[in-house]
Design a protein that fits this description.
Elements: H1 12-15, H2 19-28, E1 30-34, E2 39-41, E3 49-63, E4 69-75, H3 84-87, E5 95-108, H4 109-118, H5 120-146, H6 149-163, E6 168-170, H7 173-179, H8 184-196, E7 200-203, E8 206-209, H9 212-218, H10 222-231
Antiparallel strand pairs: 1-5, 2-5, 3-4, 3-5, 6-8, 7-8
Helix pairs in contact: 2-4, 4-5, 5-10, 6-9, 7-8
């Protein structure tokens, strides 16, 4: 998967801030590319930065002792990584792995906490996102227990579509299978069916959403609940 060539689209938390707060953060943050496969955080590690994606997709991953993994949640330009900074902890919640390349801003934990004390709109925005993210975690757990593989794949593709610029992004079916703890053959079959229905197209690792309405029809109710929670 190649790095995106377009400039950062902009993180929504930072974009909603008053000029003084945004300027304070931009002066202290470092913005650089993130590439598919990059590990931004390891679970349980000491928190060092708040990371604000401008584009691209990052998964929080749970890893079992037998090596199996599953996605806990998906984060894009609507949010940030480093929840401990606003929740009072000191360690990372979940392994953070880039799934779709983009750009992100790194703000050192000391600067982030200073900004939170100084700018109430930043604290409100980060807490609002954290609350929505907790709802996403709970809905994803229910989804994995109650809904079919096709509904879950469709839900994940819709969530990804909400967070990327445009209708296409680089992702492999093997990656989707790993994130959702499904067999690759199952995801291949589901994507082939969605393509036949005109909902998506897939070629050389580039997935395009061609009919969002059909994809919505294929997804479960969890998608709407997650979107409502994370858009609040």
């Amino acid at each position: 998967m190649k790095e995106l060539s377009s400039p950062p689209a902009g993180n929504r938390i930072l974009a909603c801030l008053p000029d003084e707060a945004r300027g304070y953060i931009e002066e202290r943050a470092e913005t650089r590319p993130i590439r598919a496969g990059d590990i931004l955080f390891e679970e349980g590690a000491a928190i060092t930065h708040a990371i604000f994606p401008h584009d691209g997709l990052v998964s929080l991953i749970a890893r079992m002792e037998n090596g199996r993994t599953v996605e806990k949640s998906l984060i894009g330009p609507e949010g940030f990584l480093g929840f401990a900074i606003v929740m009072g902890g000191d360690t990372v919640f979940g392994r953070a792995v880039v799934q779709v390349a983009g750009h992100a801003s790194w703000l050192a934990v000391a600067d982030a906490r200073s900004a939170l004390r100084r700018f109430e709109p930043l604290r409100e925005a980060m807490l609002r996102f954290t609350k929505g993210h907790m709802a996403q975690l709970m809905e994803s757990l229910a989804c994995a227990s109650l809904h079919t593989a096709q509904q879950r794949v469709s839900r994940w593709l819709l969530q990804a579509h909400d967070r990327v610029a445009g209708d296409e992004f680089h992702i492999t079916q093997e990656t989707v299978a790993t994130l959702l703890a499904l067999r690759r053959a199952t995801v291949n079959e589901i994507c082939a069916g969605l393509a036949s229905a005109g909902a998506i197209s897939y070629h050389r690792g580039v997935l395009s959403i061609t009919d969002r309405g059909r994809l919505l029809d294929s997804a479960c109710e969890c998608y709407g609940r997650i979107r409502a929670a994370t858009s609040a």
